[in-house]
């Protein structure tokens, strides 16, 4: 069956489109080589906020006539030298050759490193090693935090965030989810600093202050992650521990308790063995740019989530689900991120249903689908970013496609597939088989759907007999909201009171006596937030509810409170991460006199600002609070 316009096949049964996959977000020639392994040897210098060291890539040419190796890199990464080691012939010693290279512009989020390879290096299917010595500082992947930006405010901390295409500023790489390899790392740090990485094995030499890491399972470049700082740990299960700054460790442990092992066991019962060995969690300061990140063996999660038990539960379970969907089996292109996020969201809700029941899962789903429809109203039904197969032009940062559609529309599509097979447990069996089939590989939508129809041949036969096609094409390439949503009536016991109170509150003459009978102290966080969201969706709101303090900087700048926003910024900017400081400067001081491309230094007086309030949507962008997504 033709799915998404792709129906040809090539060697090994993979689709022709997969064999000729083009990743417009990567400048690399990843099709020309097999990346067998890479090693990082790094020294972290907190005083000057710099990482120096080298990288060794073990490669095998897979195409004839290749004369260069092209890797993704970034202007913040300075290459010092490149050489390669070629095995000597007939037992002779290895030969080390110095290689010429050039850096070329690619997009505003990266460059290309073009390395010339002499003929002596390129022998089909014969491995060779390339060593790149480099220094990197404050690129988009690397977040240096001064002590005052950490939770404990005593020692500095650094962490990396590779998703989607940021790790090219951490190390030169094939920065595409289509390429997976094992890796290892040696990291040297000052005394008192603990280093963690998304690796399956680690060791530490206290005498040399050297940490050693090894990831024995193949991962894409964006899942290589590092954090270093004043970190301590506590075991919370037979294969899990929590890492955090000392001041929040006890709180983190108490909030998670023994739940992580329980969630892992439920997930394994649904989707098969957890293959990564360890499942550890590190809590990062509030400047962590997203809620959580599914780095294999080591989930990164923002420490402020400890304020909400329910959001903590949902986000950790979501990252656990990525151990199967996204990490073990990965979307081969960023244009199909739903293959990771949509499947992980579905798996997360299967886990919460088994662990906490239908009502809890339906409440959380209603809350998220409300947010999806709110975003749909902002963007319009015909906006192409609402497609599951979202095509983007060269130069567009894939991170711009991270929106609720990849999560919630993707979830609804996976739920539709589950409904097609008619039995949720049969669909669980399909997902287990899918993971077993494609584990440690990268896939496109056709791989999933072909395997689905092979697993349920009666669906394909039924379509042929009835001359009615399945809705795959409309789901994948159609704009707008999901074609259908799962039945969430099992959550009425929790969502019903929320809607009832919303209806009472929205009446022309609300009755305080009736409203006062609702005991909001017994409500869950999701009920409370769903109630507030639905109140804000009503237009107009009673004047006593709506005020300019609810939104933050963007809406303050759009009203009479801009001077207040500027004053708050001046008082707090020293405690803001430079990336956040730059963003707020752009919001507050949009004018030609202010060059936001430079490093964001502390401001002692306001730049020339426009006299009239700025409209945050005038340039076609959407406020962050309107497109916020879960982990």
TrEMBL record:
Stretch list, region Disordered: 599-621
Domain Peptidase M1 leukotriene A4 hydrolase/aminopeptidase C-terminal: 493-588
GO biological process: proteolysis
Cofactor binding summary note: Binds 1 zinc ion per subunit.
Keyword tags: Hydrolase, Metal-binding, Metalloprotease, Protease, Zinc
Cofactor (UniProt): Zn(2+)
Active site (UniProt): 319 (proton acceptor), 407 (proton donor)
Single GO term (MF): metalloaminopeptidase activity
Residues given in the record as Zn(2+) binding sites: 318, 322, 341
Low complexity bias spans: 599-618
Family named by the database record: Belongs to the peptidase M1 family.
Protein name per the record: Arginyl aminopeptidase like 1
Originating species: Cyprinus carpio carpio
